């Protein structure tokens, strides 16, 4: 392994400079041909000297170039910032990206207390903050839609026996991108999207543009309340890790009661194979007190919720999937 350079690893200037440049739309202005610092600052509505200092820092790190004094341009690394995809939303400080960036300042408090520290930083617990700020929740929903799945792929089953599946419920399915792709891939399947009312309200366009609107029902509700019953598959994608053990068990129990007796619960995300400690999940530790779990830890939660792990394995995309059946 190369020698670890702690100065570089602990530098906060570069991550913040990138976010400031993204939030000010600097790359887009450059792509439109605005390159002189005064014109860039005017277009971005900011101070020219300060912007130049931020851009020079990034130039030194290999993002943007300064072909002449006071003139900045895109290079290969910076061009990614004008391409479609999830990166910009994740880095944009005026939306959910700003909350995520700022939330890291609560890491110490989370470690000291063993409790999520989001409220200490932003004044409200994470989910309540989203409830209280419609612009923020819109930006969160958009980031969930584009964030991890810029090209959504259909849900995967360990056994891939989709011919036996007729009804899928996507629990906490966001604005429906995964469900839409799943229904497109399996024309005999119908789907139900369960998420908070404000989020399912944004799903129309997703289902219509995928051409599956006639096979979808939506249920704007909490997934801690009883779920639509009797479906063949209940999907929990990138969801369970948001929650500490107690609410995660309640959520799984809701799935178990709705899936009984013959349905299954498919967990995609937040569970790692094997018995060694699960990695990752630091952000949810700060935001919500959630965690990633290994298969043993997940199996224990599932058992409390009335489920047994029936199968696990990797989807074609490489994601680790766990399938449970009512015990
Ligand atoms: C991390 S996102 C995952 C979204 C989607 N499954 C995906 O993979 O893109 C978590 C989702 O849970 C939803 N959510 C949070 N609390 C909820 C609740 N109490 N009831 C229903 N949905 C909830 C959020 O609105 C969000 O869409």
Structural summary, described in words:
This protein folds into 3 domains: 6-82, Winged helix-like DNA-binding domain superfamily/Winged helix DNA-binding domain (Arc Repressor Mutant, subunit A, Orthogonal Bundle), CATH 1.10.10; 87-146, Helix Hairpins, CATH 1.10.287; 162-326, Vaccinia Virus protein VP39 (Rossmann fold, 3-Layer(aba) Sandwich), CATH 3.40.50. 43% of the residues lie in helices and 16% in strands. The protein contains 18 helices and 11 strands. The radius of gyration is 22 Å and the shape is globular. It starts with 5 loop residues before the first helix and ends with a strand. The model has no long low-confidence stretch (mean pLDDT 95). Bound molecules: S-adenosylmethionine.
Quickly list its features.
single chain, 327 residues, alpha/beta, Arc Repressor Mutant, subunit A, Helix Hairpins, Rossmann fold, 3 domains, 7-stranded mixed beta sheet, two-stranded antiparallel sheet, 18 helices, 16% strand, globular, binds S-adenosylmethionine
CATH class of the largest domain: Alpha Beta
Bound molecules: S-adenosylmethionine
**Shape summary:** globular
Query: On the 0-100 scale, what is the average pLDDT?
Result: 95
Number of domains as seen in the coordinates? 3
Taking strands numbered 1, 2, ... along the chain, how are they ordered across the largest sheet?
5-4-3-6-7-11-10
SSE sequence, one letter per element: HHHHHEEHHHHHHHEHEHHEEHEEHEHEE
Residue fraction in strands: 15-25%
The N- to C-terminal Cα distance equals: 46 Å
Sheet/helix structural class: alpha/beta
Task: Specify Rg, calculated over alpha carbons.
Answer: 22 Å
Ranges with pLDDT <50 over ≥5 residues? none
Domain O-methyltransferase dimerisation: 12-83
Protein name: Hydroxyneurosporene methyltransferase
Domain O-methyltransferase C-terminal: 104-307
Pfam family, one: Dimerisation
